[in-house]
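Reviewer 2 asked us to include a model.

Predict the structure of this chain.
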Amino acid sequence: MAYKIDHGEFIEVNGDRQSLRYRAAAEGLPVILFLHGGPGVCDRHLVLGAHSAMAERYTMVCWDQRGSGKSYNKQIQKSDISLDTYVEDAEFVLEYLAGKFGVRRVIVSGHSWGTAIGTALAAKRPDLVAAYIGQGQFVNGAENERVSYEFCLAQARERGDKKALKVLENGAPVDGVYPDRRSMMTQRDCLTRYGGANYRRREGLVKSLLMPLLKTDEYTLGDVARYAKGATYLTGKLWNDVVALRFDETVKTLGMPVVITQGDHDYNTPSSIARKWFDELGAPYKKWISFAESAHSPAFEEPEKWEREVLAALDEIGEKFPLR
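Predicted model (structure tokens):
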């Protein structure tokens, strides 16, 4: 396909140089901003690889957040950052995109950590957010980690995974915080190997993240090195902010249409927790879309269904609400 818009740029976001990537088949389309997970786990290579057909109808925008991927620089380790920093950055990016593409509002699609930013952003600036799409929806940090950890512990026992059990049995999170980095990374590695992160491709944590990066043209080897540094640093730096979140207490209504796309087997951000929040959420339009063959990332585990369902939901929304 020939794209009218297909390039990237760096802009200054609240004093920090950050990377944006655009793709659209025509000018004047509604804009959708993808908020990647992590913190620091950029996914433009996956979004553009799996969903470029969306560019026929929407201007797709992928953003490497502060300290992430192409936006990484050493100064991040000297900065005082928090979730609020990323919400403020996202707010700046929305205002920039609105001006650049001549729209009043932008559709926001968040994945995992991106839903922490996206939900807080949607609650703060409903005037800028045309619709909110969540995937791997984050709701309550402490409860999230309790359920996720218990899944891994039960699976390790069932499988007789003695190496993992040795760490897991002494590494339970307390209020969402693991006793040390080894405990946390073991739990996350088990999550990927046991199907709670990707239901069908049960690879270890490093392989599942690294191999797609090495195969894409979106990131150079230098970018991959920056990506690794950013993801490693940001996870530790921002973890306490993540697990302190309680959207089930603080975000009970949103002023725009809400679509949640959730894998049935998600134990990274457990679907049972996300569903309870969704059912109690007040919004002018709500739609829950389940994915029976997915865990944490249905956009990449069941890409055709995810794209079809999201586009159909946006068509429904567009009949009643402005998307640009």
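Strands lie at 5-13, 16-24, 31-35, 59-64, 106-111, 129-135, 258-263, 286-291. The longest helix spans residues 221-243. We have added this to the supplementary material.
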